From TrEMBL:
Organism in which the protein naturally occurs: Halorubrum miltondacostae
This protein's record includes keyword Flavoprotein: yes
The entry's keywords: FAD, Flavoprotein
Similarity comment: Belongs to the ETF alpha-subunit/FixB family.
Domain of life: Archaea
Coiled coil (residue ranges): none
A Pfam family it matches: ETF
Entry protein name: Electron transfer flavoprotein subunit alpha/FixB family protein
Signal peptide stretch: none
Segments forming domain Electron transfer flavoprotein alpha/beta-subunit N-terminal: 4-183
PANTHER family noted in UniProt: ELECTRON TRANSFER FLAVOPROTEIN ALPHA, ELECTRON TRANSFER FLAVOPROTEIN SUBUNIT ALPHA, MITOCHONDRIAL
Length: 315
């Protein structure tokens, strides 16, 4: 029987959350097929990464010590060889900038179909992948022909793998061709010293705030809650907050423990970036605002009345 292989992703010395989410997706697929789940980690501190990736449900971890950061050629070559070696039928990758860099080339090298940006899947006689298109306005399903394929999974759609596993960890001997690409440095796009994707609690402000000077009120709420301030696209487009604070399809995908949407209507582009939050609280004057369709708790009211009361309660 063919196994399932998941490729982990790291950046600047740290594993990315989508690595653990991809393990969950891979385990789901492995369970449906009744096969083992293998994880590959390439480059960087592979031994340390392997310990962190040894979660419940992982049967084997393969380390490839080649360079410190992402290299397209190394990932394609290593995963192609590992796929053949362990007879992997499915290769699961993050639907990230790095993942999409080498996923098509890997599928071409293996001679298998590829489906990108999966948000869900079902497995009966074959794999059916759920995808969202046009800013999550359209949901589609793709039936994958055959038993072998490459699949990329969207971040925030599967819970991260947890627990401590007992996987076998082994250094994989693979032939990595010499590459003309190399990492010379990193530059943060949008600047800023906050990564909203790492926040446990987010207070997000939308166009309901009306004027730039009113954002101070939401900053006070975030401070009272020990939260991080984020925003919907109109706030960033107006220049009231920097790009690194934007949540949504054209911003960042976030999965905090608590997401508080203040004056945000809930356009599909914004919802696509925060719907994976554990608990969603919405404050809006419009009882029919789409944000209430996904909110766990909703307050129908004027934010200029509601927010000061919340500040008084939590300060």
């Amino acid at each position: 029987m063919m196994s399932v292989l998941v490729a982990a992703e790291h950046r600047r010395g740290a594993l990315r959350d989508v690595s653990y989410e991809a393990i969950t997706a891979g385990r789901e697929l492995a369970d449906a097929r009744g096969v083992d789940l293998h994880v590959a980690v390439i480059g960087g501190d592979v031994d340390g990464f392997a310990e962190d990736l040894n979660r419940d449900g992982v049967d084997a971890i393969h380390t490839v010590a080649d360079g410190e950061e992402f290299d397209h050629n190394a990932y394609q070559a290593a995963l192609s060889q590992l796929t053949d070696r362990i007879e992997a039928g499915a290769v699961v990758l993050p639907n990230s900038v790095n993942g999409l860099d080498y996923a098509p080339a890997l599928a071409e090298a293996l001679g298998v179909p590829i489906v990108t940006d999966a948000v869900g899947m079902a497995y009966d006689d074959g794999l059916t992948v759920t995808r969202e298109m046009y800013g999550s306005k359209v949901e589609t399903t793709v039936d994958v022909a055959g038993d072998r394929f490459v699949l990329t999974v969207r971040g925030g759609e599967w819970p991260p793998a947890e627990g401590v596993g007992d996987a076998a960890i082994e250094a994989a001997e693979v032939d990595i061709p010499e590459s003309g690409a190399r990492v010379t440095g990193f530059e943060e796009v949008g600047g800023g010293d906050v990564d909203i994707a790492d926040a446990d609690v987010l207070v997000s402000v939308g166009r309901g705030i009306e004027e730039e000077e009113n954002i101070e009120l939401i900053e006070d709420l975030a401070e009272a809650l020990g939260a991080t301030l984020s925003a919907s696209r109109p706030i960033v487009d107006n220049g009231w907050l920097p790009k690194n604070r934007q949540v949504g399809q054209s911003g960042k995908v976030v999965t905090p423990d608590v997401y508080i949407a203040v004056g945000i209507s809930g356009a599909v582009q914004h919802v696509a970036g925060m719907k994976g939050s554990d608990t969603i609280v919405a404050i809006n004057t419009d009882p029919n605002a789409p944000i209430f369709d996904i909110a766990d708790y909703g307050i129908v009211g004027d934010l200029f009345d509601v927010v000061p009361e919340l500040i008084d309660e939590f300060a």
